Amino acid sequence: xxxxLFLTATSCSGDTGEKPVGALVESETxxxxxxxxxxxxxxxxxPTPKPAxxxxxxxxxxxxxxxxxxxxxxxxxxxxxxxxxxxxxxxxGSKYLVGEATITAKIVEDLTSLNLDLSGMTVTSVKFEGSxxxxxxxxxxxxxxxxxxVVKGTMAALEISYQGFPGLVENLNLPHSGGWFNTENMFYxxxxxxxxxxxxxxxxxxxDRAQFxxxxxxxxxxxxxxxxxxxxxxGFLVEKTESDVDKSITWIYETRYPRAPYLTVLAYGIFKxxxxxxxxxxxxxxxxxxxxLPSDIFEAGVETFGHDYHAMFEVFxxxxxxxxxxTYGYLVLNETLGYALETQTLSIFGYDTYQxxxxxxxxxxxxxxxxxxxxxxxxxxxxxEGFATYAEYLFLEESVPSFSxxxxxxxxxxxxxxxxxxFFTQPPPGDPGRDNLFSASVYFRGAMTLHxxxxxxxxxxxxDSIRGYVEQYGGQSATTNxxxxxxxxATGSDLEEFFNGWLFQDNLPPLQELYD
Length: 516
Ligand code: TRP
Ligand code: ZN
Known about the structure:
24% of the residues lie in helices and 26% in strands. The chain is α+β, with helices and mostly antiparallel strands. Among the domains are: 56-210 and 258-264, tricorn interacting facor f3 domain (Immunoglobulin-like, Sandwich); 376-515, Orthogonal Bundle (Neutral Protease, domain 2), CATH 1.10.390. β6 and β7 (131-132) form a beta hairpin. The termini are far apart. The structure holds tryptophan (TRP) and zinc ion.
């Protein structure tokens, strides 16, 4: 039985003691139920009451948010993180985490203070250029006050020491829980749109991508249950060493490509690595929680469940352009998650979703759409989910000669609407609202929008536009307007009415016109 202690402590500078007002909450498995075929909605949690707090230090510059319309407190203004260097010390016995984060950021406005996002955890010190800085906590904000203003254009390195029992991200009214999950045999971290602030201070928004260096040390358990446990995260393993002194093991992973913070996955438990395969320039290798998962899990992926990564890479590199990173793999847990998540270069699956080949296709497609191109803000979520869902149909079209997207997907969707079933088409996906962030319509009507676009402008211009979009916005974030503008430029036509109807109006645009 795993318990997580959630502390909502407000700590001030120099105050290293905790003031816990939190409750003991049984840590839960995520309530997300994102079966790709039939996503369901979970009930909206009640709003969290705001506690009496320390003063907020102004709007921009150094604001507590990036202006995200759905999650105004995600991310922060005034700076741009280049690297998170995270040193983590984990005690698997008490499930206590001690962390030291060195965050290197480019200051983009003159700042007297700045904010980071952090849920739970107790901050014990903040250092900048050798001195201790004052700091405050307010909900999920860590507010750091500079002694002298830091001017625009400088690089700043902040060292933040923190510790606690990491758990779920709190206070955000997330549509699905995200954060740090302790199970009986391991822990893992995942969640969208937020998970990283449960275990390190962060500018928690997809519009600020950064490099990561993660150094993880696990204290050995007295009964030595953990001697063969592995620590797995995205990026590549630089070093794994065992201490002569206390037999603790340290893993160091680094990234080669910047990533949005919610795309970090961590897992520590009994994990087995597959043999590595090279697909062109891409190094493909997977991880599985095995045992208890079957020892032939990687073979079964191909032989029983039909995950054909060779075919997927071939189809997608042809359609979208080169794979944007140099490694890929899945990480499969012995859990029923009800979802998979496209964590960058290492997508996380439960043993349930692992068995569904189309979900493997979906998560791979997200590496282009969602990860290489991130959303400018969360209202643009269809740019991730609509594209990844449409990619599933494109993969079927390319690999199953008799498959027709029109007959098997697009027209049947209209038939459902005629029968009064709007599960896959409402609300319109262009601005679905925070509580419908992952509604079925974001996935399926998002995919229908792309298919309708293809029917309207023709295959050649459609695929040129998609490749142009990846080329132009890869490594950056994009908005719906960016995409519309790009397609309008590529085709030389005014598509405002088209996109308005598909993405923002209740009714589906008429079917017949698309086939005239
Ligand atoms: N982006 C994921 C996918 O479609 C699904 C997802 C949505 C998710 N919200 C989540 C996964 C929260 C984990 C947690 O592939
Ligand atoms: Zn998805």
